[in-house]
Amino acid sequence: MNKQSVYQLILQQLQDDLQIILRAAQTAYETATHEENIAENKYDTLGLEAAYLAAGQSRRVEEIRQALSLWQSLVLRPYEPQAGIQVGALLGLEDEKGHEQWLFLGPDGAGLKVQVVGQLVTVITPRSPLGASLLGKSEDDEVEIVVAGSRQQFTVTEVR
Q: Residue limits of the Transcription elongation factor GreA/GreB C-terminal domain (predicted)?
């Protein structure tokens, strides 16, 4: 799995998400400001609901723009074992049951998923418990986190 290819897919997904949310925000704004949606009485709330939706969509536009900007300014570096895992690392993790997953430690956009040659890659950030515990680790290191009172242990199988 090529780190540069995964990076490009993440950028493309963020750009696609931005275009979708921009259209949704514009539609919500047009609905909120359309003359037919002016409230005729206190129970007529369509315009108000659309305004709330438009405000939420606008906030989401800014969040995606910020994430996209951070990703675009990310400089991908080759993995250096002496430095350990850093932001920009593509890595494989195996849990105690032998299930492997691929993660990309990114600057933002946690939870974003992309498919690469049939393999799902999930974006995590250093702000998450798992992302924070991975910083500085190397291949074959074990990482332990506690989520909702449950201990989870992983082994770093590969880092790129």
A: 102-159
Question: What is the per-residue DSSP string for 55-114?
Answer: HHHHHHHHHHHHHHHHHHT-------TTT-S-TT-EEEEEETTS-EEEEEE-SS-TT-EE
pTM, two decimal places: 0.90
Residues 153/144, Cβ–Cβ less than 8 Å? yes
CATH code matching the domain that covers 90-159, chosen among 3.40.50.1220, 1.10.10.10, 3.10.50.30, 3.40.50.300: 3.10.50.30
Which is nearest to 86 in space by CA: 132, 153, 143, 154?
Answer: 132
Q: Mind listing the pLDDT tens digit for each residue in 51-81?
A: 899 999 999 999 999 999 999 999 999 999 9
